[in-house]
Amino acid sequence: MWSNLQERFKGKDNSTWHIDVECLNCGTTFSGHYCPNCGQAVKEYDKPFGFIFYNFLGDFFAFDTRFFKTLFALITRPGFLTKEYFAGRRVRYTPPFRIFVFVSFILFFLLQIVTNRGLSTVLDSDLKDAKLGLDSTSVVAADSIINQVNDEFAPEEKEALNNVLAKGNIRMDSIDIDKAANEINLGEWNGARNIRLALNEHADKMQTELEEETDPEKQAELQKNIQLLRSPEATMAKILKYISYAFFLLLPLFALILKLIYIRRKRNYMRHLVFSIHIHSFIFLVMTTIMGLYLLFDESMSTLSGILFLSIPIYIVIALKKFYGQSIGKVVLKFFALSFLYNIVFFTVILLAALDAINLL
User: Fold this and answer.
1) Exposed, middle or buried by CB within 10 Å (0-12, 13-18, 19+), for 219?
2) What percent of the chain lies above the pLDDT cut of 70?
3) Phi-psi region of 194 (alpha: psi -120 to 50; beta: other; left: phi over 0)
4) Quick one: 239 and 339 in the same domain?
5) Is the CB of residue 282 less than 8 Å from the CB of residue 75?
6) Any long-range contacts for 320-326 (C-beta under 8 Å, 24+ apart)?
7) Domain housing 152
8) Most exposed: 41, 50, 271, 313, by fewest CB within 10 Å?
9) In a 10 Å sphere around its CB, with 0-12 CB exposed, 13-18 middle and 19+ buried, how is residue 72 labelled?
């Protein structure tokens, strides 16, 4: 609307004549693009849906030079965007929370695809000869996870995980992926051709039990178990959704830990929060890249994934050094303190989110 008015009222020298318009929201008369009283933009929305949708995407994601400039600075200059934000140079970059929302959306979208693909492969596996076979890629991926847990978890974290797995008579340091892939005997599962059909048969049995059960608590438990057995993909999608919500809670918690670690600096909490948003945005970018590589290439990407994972602690250390401005020795010590406290919070929040997703709380 405003651009049309400008075209109509251009002078001979191509200069724009300023005219007053009336805000349709509050009735204020003004000249410009935004009402000075209520802030509503002078835009016309009675247009085709495609046009409005395109403008919405442009306003929300800001796919212009700002977006790509912000993305490049986020990847290549740790701590720079946070310094720029509090130096007052904000308009030239995409707002911190907007970039985080965009990256997290892409990450969890890819995670949903990867988990559904992997889960479907397992559930639809043929139970011929009553063996659960894993391909070489699955073995390598599983072995990589086990090794990472054994190598990188703190002793107390590993012991806590072992205590949980001990209920199934399993210990992380004794798992042999190749042996497990060849020797797990599923038995004759009522003649089911694959795991999905076997789970459905077990759900049918529970359904019969549910029809005969009179205790409300046991009925609720049976209904929950039946839902889990009949729709594992839906359960996984729900878990991922809850975990994505949990990360929004982790942003301020990470900032709170930073506030405690740098308490002598007496900086406002908002500084730590913006720094937290930028750090998590970078971590999500790394995870998104890894997920994309696994989707594009069938062969193992463990080496490249390891390098990308290694970039995360290096990036955080550099960002802490650039933004908080201490010596490298103090930065490294505070990084380890930050990692220790955040890992405790991280695993607690993610575990609670996953348990809540499957209604175990």
Assistant:
1) middle
2) 66
3) beta
4) yes
5) yes
6) 320/79, 321/79, 322/77, 322/78, 322/79, 322/80, 322/83, 323/79, 323/82, 323/83, 323/275, 324/262, 324/265
7) 133-183
8) 50
9) exposed
Spatial contact of 111 and 240, defined as CB atoms under 8 Å apart: yes
Angle, vertex CA 312, rays to CA 307 and CA 317, nearest 5: 125
User: Which residues share a beta bridge with 70?
Assistant: none
Q: Copy the structure tokens of residue 193.
A: 């051709």
CA angle at 42 for the pair 36 and 46, rounded to the nearest 5° = 150
Work out how many domains the chain is built from and give that number: 3
- Indicate if 127 and 137 belong to the same structural domain: no
Question: pTM for the full model?
Answer: 0.65
Q: How do residues 236-252 score in pLDDT, each as one tens digit?
A: 888 888 888 888 889 99
The answer to whether the CB of 120 falls within 8 A of the CB of 237 is no
State the amino acid at position 206 in one-letter form. Answer: M
Instruction: Determine, yes or no, domain membership for 70.
Output: no
| Integer-rounded Cα radius of gyration of the chain | 27
Domain boundary among 11, 43, 65: 65
Per residue in 17-42, pLDDT (tens digit) is: 456 778 878 888 888 777 888 877 77
Which runs of consecutive H residues, i.e. helices, occur in the chain?
2-8, 49-61, 65-76, 80-86, 96-123, 136-152, 155-165, 177-183, 195-212, 216-230, 232-261, 269-296, 302-324, 328-357
* End-of-domain residue from the set 65, 96, 112: 65
Which residue in 246, 269, 227, 264 sits closest to 346, CA to CA? 246
Place of tokens 């930050």: 338
